Fold:
Amino acid sequence: MKASFRVNLTTQNTLNLLAKHYAQVVMARHQTPTFDVHIEKPLFELAECLTATIPKSGVLFCGNCGNGKTTMLLALQNLFMALGSRHFSFVKEDFNAIMKVYDARDIVLLGKDFNEIRKIRDKDLLAIDDFGKEPVEVMDYGTVLSPLVHLLEFRYGQQLFTAMTTNLTPPEIREKYGARIADRFNEMMQVIVFEGPSYRG
Structure:
């Protein structure tokens, strides 16, 4: 699988910028950033992933509730916005460096509106928060739809960068979504595990 894009910075520079944006996201919630091993390790793994010679076309942040996954997702979003498309390689001419974050449940609720789903699935960069909290299937006048699964399969095929957070473990993902999606995740996504305690109060 060819790379969808990579960040044209050193791993260390990318790490420094990620840490800065992570701290800014935390401080925007009137909290004090904590850079312990449970945050430093995912920061470094993410920086390595983004600057790899042939990076994967996505990242999956796994872990328990409240331990920094969504904060990291927002830091990544802010990093991409700050860098702009000029700092990426392997990209098409009209590459859009803005990565919008969607809640997985909201995507499923839009599942009956194909035009809206198509707008989301075609984005160069896409972030999905709380993967696994949504129902896998929805009904539309008797027709069973799996909008998020279809969206992810499309992005896998097109090798579009997708960042996701989940409280599910890899075996739980396989059990809920089946071997097809689990195997695609293994190929397209760098799994980054958050092992720290909850930072919420």
About this structure: The longest helix spans residues 11-28. The CA atoms of residues 115 and 134 lie 20 Å apart.
